[in-house]
Design brief:
CATH superfamily of the largest domain: Vaccinia Virus protein VP39
Low-confidence stretches: 1-7
Radius of gyration: 57 Å
Shape: rod-shaped
Strand order of the largest sheet: 3-2-1-4-5-7-6
CATH topology of the largest domain: Rossmann fold
Helix content: 55-70%
CATH architecture of the largest domain: 3-Layer(aba) Sandwich
Number of strands: 7
């Protein structure tokens, strides 16, 4: 025996609303999954938008404030699903305003999605300002209009009534983001005026959505939805259906984003592991380079120590050579003094001969012959002295060639030091390249390299100064005996200044035969 259950008036009203609003024909659209799905505040309102498209079957739609394109491509998908051969025009505000609305500044992902899926349905435009958008919409040209207050400049709500004229009778206008508009702002006052003048449906969840019909001839299911609203508020049962389906879409988007983020994090972790392995390999390479640098520095220090020892030996040899040259100079000076004394004796003998010739004319011939013999002996002795001086000059040239050889050795040492410095520069460059990979090791290596470089520079500078001093000492020709004799026998201060200024000119211009002969024996500056 069957029992007839009587339903309460409230349950009967809910059942009637569910029958009128959620007809089986609209179920497929209610659960339609968008192709273009991103994490956007408008996602939770897509079930209501799809349901409205199923009830209204629009041919022409428009979106003012495309933003991320979630509503634009949802409308295109619904129009394509209905097979209405319609078009959806989207006005976006992505960049600077242009004199004409065109395709500039449209994000590349939106253009790509439009070309792939909705080339014949979607039309995206970069709007300059709201007035040009309103002027471009012809009256009675649209079935559905979506105004996104969050993706358009201020003043869109104030122009909503003007834009609503583009709807055909029975069309629907959505205003998204009404909860974000201040109630005392011009847009807030315009929204209040719209709600007071027209009966619609308000969804207060998230950023808020307002549905407003236009004129007469409203689709039956949309009319039933508006009729079920109490002061623009839907019954909780109906509102819950749209809200839960919308939150399900939003949850799937966020789950997909979380999965993508996880995949990206795993890829980053893998790259980090590879980078860590690369860094470890670099550390090993750096360690080996550091050990090689230490060995090279040890070799350089050993070479520097050998160079110092060689320089010390050179200094000793140069000191001994200078001492020998000093002794030779003293011997030459003694020889010259002896020659002068002999010349003085010769003059005395000649004077005596003259006196004897004057007093003893008879013995003149014998005395003259004797004097001639003495002069020849002196000439022979002078020739012998010249030969000794020539031999001494050859010995001096040999010493000079030995000094030049020592200078070449010094230059070789300097080139070796330069090569060592260049090698150290190369090692320092390699160390600096490797140090950028590991910051902790970088600071320590920089300090060590700086200290070693300063030490090397100081040692090189010290060695260079020593070599230059040695060369200067080798080039100097001291003549202490000559200077003493000049000071002793020359009393004229002007001639002394000439001697200090130009030694060769001093002896060349002298009237003394002995001075000119001495210049030939001791040339040079």
């Amino acid at each position: 025996m069957s029992e007839v259950t009587k339903l309460s008036p409230e349950v009967s009203q809910v059942a009637r609303i569910a029958t009128d609003v959620f007809a089986p024909a609209s179920f497929d659209f209610l659960f339609l999954r968008p192709r273009h799905l991103v994490d956007s505040p408008a996602v939770i309102h897509l079930p209501l938008l799809f349901w409205t498209c199923a009830a209204l079957r629009p041919r022409d739609a428009a979106v003012v404030g495309v933003g991320d394109g979630i509503v634009q491509f949802a409308l295109c998908q619904a129009i394509e699903r209905l097979g209405a051969q319609g078009r959806c025009t989207g006005y976006g505000f992505w960049g600077n305003p242009h004199p004409e609305m065109d395709g500039r500044d449209i994000p590349e992902p939106l253009l790509h999605h439009q070309q792939v899926f909705y080339e014949d349905v979607s039309r995206l435009l970069s709007a300059g300002n709201l007035d040009r958008v309103a002027a471009g919409m012809l009256p009675g040209s649209l079935d559905l209009l979506w105004l996104d207050l969050t993706a358009a400049p201020d003043g869109l709500a104030q122009r909503a009534e003007l834009l609503q004229r583009a709807l055909r009778p029975g069309g629907v206008m959505f205003l998204h983001g009404v909860n974000l508009v201040a109630s005392d702002s011009p847009d807030g006052l315009a929204l209040r005026r719209l709600k007071a003048e027209r009966r619609g449906v308000s969804f207060d969840g998230d950023q808020g959505l307002l549905l407003l019909p236009a004129g007469e001839g409203i689709a039956p299911r949309i009319a039933a939805l508006i009729a079920a609203a109490d002061g623009a508020q839907l019954p909780p049962e109906v509102e819950r259906v749209f809200r839960r389906i919308g939150h399900g879409l939003l949850a799937s988007v966020r789950l997909a984003d979380a999965a993508a983020a996880r995949t990206d994090a795993e890829m980053r972790a893998s790259e980090a592991r590879k980078a860590l392995e690369t860094a470890e390999n670099a550390v090993q390479s750096l360690s080996s380079s550091y050990e090689l640098r230490h060995r090279t520095l040890a070799e350089v220090q050993s070479a520097l120590f050998d160079a110092r020892m060689m320089v010390a030996d050179l200094k000793e040899r140069i000191t001994s050579i200078e001492a020998a040259r000093t002794r030779e100079c003293l011997d030459h000076e003694a020889t010259v003094g002896e020659l002068r004394r002999q010349m003085d004796n010769l003059r005395a003998n000649l004077d005596q001969s003259e006196i004897a010739r004057a007093s003893l004319s008879a013995s003149h011939a014998a005395a003259e012959e004797k004097a001639r013999d003495r002069i020849e002996a002196l000439c022979a002795e002078a020739e012998s002295l010249r030969e000794r001086l020539a031999e001494t000059e050859r010995e001096r040239e040999a010493h000079l060639s030995e000094t030049a050889a020592l200078a070449r050795i010094s230059e070789d040492l300097r080139s070796q030091l330069a090569q060592a410095a260049a090698r150290n520069e190369e090692l320092s460059g390699r160390l600096e390249t490797a140090q950028r990979l590991i910051q902790d090791t970088e600071a320590k290596l920089k300090r060590e390299i700086s200290e070693e470089r300063q030490l090397r520079f100081r040692e090189t500078a010290t060695l260079t100064r020593m070599l230059e001093k040695m060369k200067a000492q080798a080039a100097r020709k001291p003549r202490p005996l000559e200077e003493w004799l000049v000071k002793r026998f020359v009393g004229d201060e002007r001639k002394l200044r000439k001697y200090w200024r130009d030694r060769v000119a001093f002896f060349s211009d002298s009237r003394s035969l002995l001075a000119r002969a001495y210049l030939r024996l001791r040339p040079g500056h």
